[in-house]
Amino acid sequence: MTPAETRAASLDTKPRTVVEPVTERDGVDGRAVPAAVPERGAAERSASDGGKRPWWHNRRRRDLAAYAVFLLAAVWVTSQIWVDPAGRVASLYVSDPAQVQFFLAHSVRVVLHGEFPFYTDQFNYPDGVNLMANTAILALGIPMVPITLLFGPAVTFVLLITLALSGTAFAWYYVLSRHVVRSPLAAAVGGWFCGFSPAMLSHASWHPNIISQWLLPFIVWRVLVITRTTRPWRDGAILGLLVVWQAFINEEILLFTAMACGIFLIAVVVQRPGMWSAAWRPLGKAVLTCTVVAGSLLAYPLYIQFAGPMAYHGLSSAVQDYGNDIAALVAQGSPTLGGDRRANVNLAPNYSEENAFFGWSLALIAVGIVVWLRREMIVRALAATGLFFVILSLGERITWWDRELIPGPWELLVRLPLLDAVVPTRFGMITTVVIGILLAIAAERVRALKVADPRTLRTLAASGLVLALLPIAPMPLKMTTRPPVPEFITSDRWREYVSAEQTLVPIPVPSMGNTHGMRWAASTNLDFKIPGGYFLAPRNANTGDAGRFGGRPSGMGSILEEVSRTGRTPKLDDRERRRSLDELRYWNAAILVLPEGQPNVEPLKQTVEQIVGPGRQELDVWIWDVRPLTQTND
């Protein structure tokens, strides 16, 4: 980055190194700030201090130490999964990890077999699934193909979670330490909160695509650079490539980031209207370049997403209504030191969506920082951005302890294009980043205060920071055991029955609540197809309809799901049997597979026998060879 870019970028309130002062116009908060100069060379440092500088004065060593701390914290958080990646899963919801592992196995097929990356019929056969509309995490899965091949998708899943938490924390530390604050410790505080906030921890058991936010600091920084860049075409192209990369990790987080950058820049221009006259030309050129680069690379994938097979428009109304309760802003997240799952009931849509939960102490300190540093333009702009997204995160109905108060502004936006496909509670993750940046700035300002007793002041500041962050300190994610993949699958015995265009039907039929069959397929790198599954698709498989979880309704699937849940064996009539057989033919089923260890295995076995007749035991499963019933004559 050139010196002109460094001085002009909007967030560069306190360059990292110290020398001569510059004029007031160079500081975004309207105050004179020190100018940045290159660090002294190794020879010059050695001559001046005899080569005895402490290790933390070396930037590379500081960075390595910071990442080591973040990585150790991430391993601590995921420690209960690392004990047995294939046999342990989040204790509340098991569907999302199975879905992610399926997507990781799909990346293997893309690399090894050249399969189409944006659509597959390996599950929900024969209708298939639009993977661009289902966050197939290709930008994470494809680089991890060697790990998936060597150790399986379950190991890749927990590795992605670990790297996502530590990588996001380090990425924010890196950008903050280079461009926002001079103190590495202040940057580490901000990076820590951005990487290990309650919101990040709540998603860590299930959503590596959401917590893989290590590109966002660089996207935000490049957006701010292009407001005053002297190389708009180059910087616009760099931003465009970052946008494409993030789009294949998670489009929703990318949209939130774009909105946050827009709100922040508007807040800056409102305070300093004169900045617009200098910024609009380079900004316009860079945005145009970014649009061309990103648009050309994403045009076809987005066409598949919005107009390709099994495309849908808008999410289920139940998900669109997911909002934060106001009380959640001052409660403590469940996976934290002071968290309590029972106390958080009804404050979030579910435990995987605790996207606020800052706690009283941190909430008060964040407000106090804004009041204390209210004269700084960057703080006011950050405060406006954080408040904007807090309000949006409350959803369509603003509630207090689950009691509806008034309609929320999200009610006016929920049906707009693009916004109709986001989950509003997740807007709280942007406020999390804002608080992380405010903490870094406040730590830096405390360090720079000129007082008679600086040691006492810093002790008090550190105590306040501990008071704010200790209650929401990350704890190991709670796990439970899950059934192993049957030996019938792992030994490849299934290959004797199932051809490439036939399906293996797990019992119960895969659905949002029954995803073990998806893990079976993922363990084979999707060498066999399955009907059903957990995914987003248009209602009744009609491309272009509103989205819902799962494919077209299945009579047989519903019957077996009810039996699995209740343990009661129904008496099927002729109509139900005929419909079930028709569905097996539609799925081109080869065999039905019921593990011996499946809960309510006997009622499930009796129900299947009413449809297709007696089965037989093979290894650790019951199987029904239905090829004679499903094959059709030409």
Structural class: alpha+beta
Largest beta-sheet details: 4 strands, mixed
By DSSP, the count of extended strands is: 12
Helical stretch tally: 27
Overall number of structural domains: 2
Shape: elongated
Percent of sequence in beta strands: 5-15%
- Helical amount: 40-55%
The average pLDDT score comes to: 89
* Radius of gyration, whole Å: 27 Å
Distance N terminus to C terminus?
67 Å
Unreliable spans are 1-48
**Strand line-up in the sheet with most strands:** 7-10-12-11
How would you describe the overall organization of this protein?
The protein has 634 residues and is an alpha+beta fold. The protein folds into two domains: 64-80 and 158-472, no CATH class; 486-630, no CATH class. The protein has 27 helices and twelve strands. It has helices at residues 3-8, 42-49, 59-77, 79-82, 95-113, 138-141, 145-151, 153-179, 184-196, 198-204, 208-211, 216-225, 232-247, 251-271, 274-307, 317-320, 360-372, 377-393, 410-413, 428-448, 454-469, 487-490, 516-523, 555-566, 574-586, 601-612, 627-630; strands at 88-90, 119-120, 129-130, 397-400, 403-407, 479-481, 503-506, 536-538, 547-549, 589-595, 616-618, 621-625. The strands form five sheets. The protein has a four-stranded mixed beta sheet with strand order 7-10-12-11. Helix 5 (95-113) runs parallel beside helix 23 and helix 18 (377-393) runs antiparallel to helix 20. It is elongated, with a radius of gyration of 27 Å. The relative contact order is 0.11. The model is unreliable at 1-48 (pLDDT under 50).
